[in-house]
Write a structure and sequence with these properties.
By secondary structure, the chain is of the alpha+beta class. Helices cover 23% and strands 29% of the residues. It has 2 domains: 3-97, Pseudouridine synthase I, catalytic domain, N-terminal subdomain (Alpha-Beta Plaits, 2-Layer Sandwich), CATH 3.30.70.580; 109-245, Pseudouridine synthase I, catalytic domain, C-terminal subdomain (Alpha-Beta Plaits), CATH 3.30.70. The chain has helices spanning 28-39, 74-84, 139-149, 197-210, 217-224, and strands at 3-11, 48-49, 58-68, 89-97, 109-117, 131-132, 151-154, 169-180, 183-190, 239-245. Strands 1, 2, 3, 4, 5, 6, 7, 8, 9 and 10 form a 10-stranded mixed sheet that branches. Strand 2 and strand 3 (58-68) form a beta hairpin. The radius of gyration is 19 Å and the shape is globular.
């Protein structure tokens, strides 16, 4: 009898061409499915994730599921996969899920974080894990701008022109930031996110902080439903898929 296994994993996205499998390229999905194929003695096993991440984007709490006929305990799944996966992917938790569970469609919310290093000097050891932005920032203005992001809006202005979905209305439950020493960290929790949405929001908020645009420009951009009204797309290395929320 087939079982559905749910796993929570972390990965360093630096050396991946994103999550989704691509012919001839190193991807997170490709590494996962290769490991599962070894465990299943050559049988291909398809993995489904809560969502895709782009090249260079990291995950602290990505969630996947797959179906199997093998009778391994959750702890055995965790150990077996971690023994075969490369050093930049780790399974943090494995458990048997209900047959109806779906890593993507059962999710009720996602949390993304974006890290910005605001020191003047670059840190060579953090260059793959945060965005270096050594400019003076008006934190109070940025905080007010972030509050305008919260709520239910059409985020057409804050997604890539390559976005291939028609419904661009999303609800953001939380949009805030914290500063600790030289690290500025944004946190976004919402019922869904469009392609490049977090990175475009961050890029736009940083422009508010620099005085390149007003706080009110956030409302204007949302109303315009036009990508040209928002700011630049922040680079991928500062972005982390932090947590995926489910009803249970």
């Amino acid at each position: 009898m087939s079982k559905r296994i749910k796993c929570t994993l972390s990965y360093d996205g630096t050396h991946f061409f994103g999550y989704q499998i691509q012919p001839g390229k190193r991807t997170v999905q490709g590494e996962l499915e290769q490991a599962l194929e070894q465990i299943h003695k050559g049988k291909a096993i398809r993995v489904t994730a809560s969502g895709r991440t782009d090249a260079g984007v990291h995950a602290y709490g990505q969630v996947i599921h797959f179906d199997t006929f093998l009778s391994l305990s959750p702890e055995q799944w965790k150990k077996a996969l971690n023994a075969l996966l490369p050093d930049d992917i780790v399974i943090k938790d494995a458990q048997e899920a209900a047959p109806s569970f779906h890593a993507r469609f059962s999710a009720t919310a996602k949390e993304y974080r974006y890290k910005v290093r605001i020191a003047q000097e670059r840190d060579v050891f953090l260059r793959h894990y945060c965005y270096h932005y050594p400019y003076p920032l008006d934190m109070e203005a940025m905080g007010r701008a972030l509050r305008l992001i919260e709520g239910t809006h059409d985020f057409t202005s804050f997604c890539s022109a390559k976005t291939d979905v028609d419904d661009r209305v999303r609800t953001i439950y939380k949009a805030d930031m914290t500063v600790r020493d030289d690290l500025l960290e944004f946190c976004f929790i919402g019922n869904g996110f469009l392609y490049n949405m977090v990175r475009i929001i961050v890029g736009t908020i940083l422009e508010v902080g620099q005085g390149k645009r007003s706080v009110d420009s956030i409302s204007s951009a949302l109303a315009a439903k036009d990508r040209r009204f928002a700011g630049k797309t922040a680079p991928p290395q500062g972005l982390y898929l932090w947590k995926v929320y489910y009803d249970n």
